[in-house]
Design brief:
By secondary structure, this protein is an all-alpha fold. Helix content is 80%, strand content 0%. The protein is built from 9 helices and no strands. Helix 7 (166-174) runs antiparallel to helix 8 (179-208). The longest helix has 34 residues, at 57-90. It is globular, with a radius of gyration of 22 Å.
């Protein structure tokens, strides 16, 4: 294994550590009685006992269930749509590709509060157009999560497409494969790692998001 591959894998593990270490720390400190993160007072299941025995247990369990459902469904849909979009961007001409990539990067640099407020105003406008007093709820929250996850999936899949050998795809076409079969047999296996990493990132960001969810979930 050469130095380039070692650095690439090291960089990947560093990114994963940055993403998941805070979650791991919170999980560890949930097994103690302290209410201050970082102050370990000994192993205890008191917080979990309060969670399931307290009066707020039903609402908390409902919130956890909705969070997991939203994260799984939104990241799955975003992965499919983002992968298809990445393939479309890859097949554009150079100037068109640069323009679309520029537009795709805008949501990444926008603060979450701007994205959340913008989506809330959009959903509110749609509700007024449909003659409804309020449209915010589960479905608007799901659409919001799909929307802000899409650019991350595209950014994970595109590099794998750039690394693929287009001549192999064209050779498969010359040998009698249909475009879909050539993509499934030649191109798709090479971009699977990008698709998986896009799904993992989308799922993680969906679990982590609060600001956008706050503005698009309604009551």
């Amino acid at each position: 294994m050469n130095a380039k591959k070692i650095l690439a894998k090291g960089y990947l593990w560093l990114l994963l550590a940055i993403l998941y270490t805070p979650i791991l720390i919170i999980a560890i400190f949930s097994f103690t009685e302290t209410k201050v993160l970082g102050n370990w007072t000994g192993f205890s299941l008191k917080l979990y006992t309060n969670l399931f025995d307290g009066g707020m247990s039903n609402s908390l369990m409902s919130a956890i269930q909705n969070t997991i459902i939203i994260a799984l469904v939104a990241s799955s849909i975003a992965t499919v749509l983002g992968s298809v979009a990445a393939i479309g961007i890859y097949n554009l001409k150079n100037r068109q590709r640069q323009a679309v990539n520029f537009l795709n990067n805008i949501p990444l640099i926008n603060p979450d509060i701007i994205t959340g407020v913008s989506l809330m105003l959009l959903f509110t406008f749609v509700a007024m157009w449909l003659g409804r007093s309020d449209i915010l709820g589960f479905w608007t929250l799901l659409l919001a999560h799909i929307t802000f996850n899409l650019p991350y999936v595209i950014l994970n899949v595109l590099p794998k497409l750039y690394q693929s050998d287009r001549s192999q795809y064209e050779a498969a076409l010359d040998l009698g494969c249909t475009p879909f079969k050539a993509f499934r047999k030649v191109t798709f296996p090479g971009i699977v790692p990008g698709i998986l990493s896009g799904f993992i990132m989308a799922f993680t960001l969906s679990l982590d998001d609060f600001v956008i969810s706050y503005f698009t979930a309604g009551n």
